[in-house]
């Protein structure tokens, strides 16, 4: 436990240093752009005219401008250093307060690990990163609310902090009803009075700006340059993105805001009375996110707090909601969902959807529920004897025989594939021209090795198919472009439904193989035969390439054409073949499993997309993937039914019925 805690604190420290370096290494004219706008050339309140008249105008409340006045001179002297280190300190305090606010009782392990985990998640989140890089104050209202709810003694002091937070971010005033209906009425009144006093002070100091913000722009709703931008994750922004404008949009926004506020605050009060005050704070913050006219990326930190809610009856389901929230708040929306037109409404509003779900829909467990502390346990297979005594290397990573959560599984597959695409695209060996030169040099190396080994059959196969078998060329083109994804996904889907224990085994091996392939793409960019000038290969899939252009047209701007070693086309097909041969009971099914990698290797060679040695590399990473799965987790378990056990060898495949028994096997 001590080692785990030290490791997590080290991770948090590394992330903090990384964030500091990212901000301070940015050129002065580009970093903290919003802070530069606030202070102006002579300080925030010395700008001639209104704060809201400049092209890159101030979007905060007048009280925020008033608070920034004492900081303007310091910002002029050392813009970036003080603000960045101050923001870092606020994030650390925020993580510590949130960790201490977890609903009691918590295990010793949770109490020791909560703080570094919370700080790390905050550092990784898009709101904190955006607040760091732009110079926003959005961390302060969240911290003030948490301090008011969990740290400060006395209801009046608590209300003062929340009132100041509301003066900086007006929708935070929704915490006043939460305080009122949970019995902290003095704090509710104090927060309202503090908000009114702070707003009145700013109005007295800057009457023109206050009128502009509160009346002319309706509490800042019209200050944004483009409120319909995807960065505005509020109900108002969503309606504008749907093309609804004018009085209808205003009416719908008001109706939806009232509905969300009523449902969300009611749920927040219920969970606060249940002893989950941090979850109640998160739900109220999610309501504030949704009903605010504009909620920019740096103001979405409230949604991250919703990870404290527990959802699901099974222990394996408990990870689904936290993973959904963390991914939505740390990754670009395009990594969460495919780039398909019908998914755009979801992808463009994914954080808002998470906020609305937390506020109104997600069935968080009550502390009075017996499942809150003791969820339904996960089914593990009995340990299976291995060939070597040192297997498994990670005994705690036991073989699970239950079916994993479908939503979580689909999400992780999607995010994993998006990360694979990004790394594969980035692994070009430098610039386009530099990557091309390196990749072509490696291509000549591979071609020379194949000549030495008498394996250089690619040119002969490529021209034979093109010149003498047009039907075969068309078949290989179709096979190359279609079966690469269809067969692995279909096999994973089948195993998920019918063979859940084998699904986990096969998926782990595939994941390891793909990770190793990414390392190969990065370390050894390789030009495929079709992109080797002077060798005379015919690109049957993409058409003729203009070698006089550095990037061969637009194709290399969309994908990394030099990610050839190892060949995942062949690697994934070989994985499919191995899985089918291992799991299938019928001989003809096993034969089909062997035919798929054979057709794939023929297709990648005939179309000029890979060298023979690329296929060898693909086979190597797949073999290592299966070995790592075996070494880390031990031998796989075998699921059969009583009926299948009594069936003939060519009979029905195992796992065809719901009644499964777990039999140990020493097979890897």
List keywords for this structure.
single chain, 668 residues, mainly alpha, 3 domains, two-stranded antiparallel ribbon, 2 strands, 63% helix, disordered C terminus
Could you explain how this protein is built, in words?
The model is unreliable at 429-434 and 639-668 (pLDDT under 50). The protein has helices at 2-24, 33-39, 62-78, 81-100, 108-124, 126-134, 139-150, 155-168, 175-181, 185-205, 207-216, 235-241, 246-273, 277-291, 301-304, 320-330, 333-336, 344-347, 350-361, 370-373, 406-426, 432-453, 458-468, 470-498, 500-523, 555-558, 568-583, 587-606, 612-633, 642-646, and strands at residues 638-640, 661-663. 63% of the residues lie in helices and 1% in strands. It has 668 residues and is mainly alpha-helical. Helix 7 runs antiparallel to helix 8, helix 8 packs across helix 10 and helix 27 runs antiparallel to helix 28 (587-606). The protein is built from 30 helices and two strands. The chain is globular. The protein has three domains: 1-214, no CATH class; 217-379, no CATH class; 427-542 and 565-576 and 591-636, no CATH class.
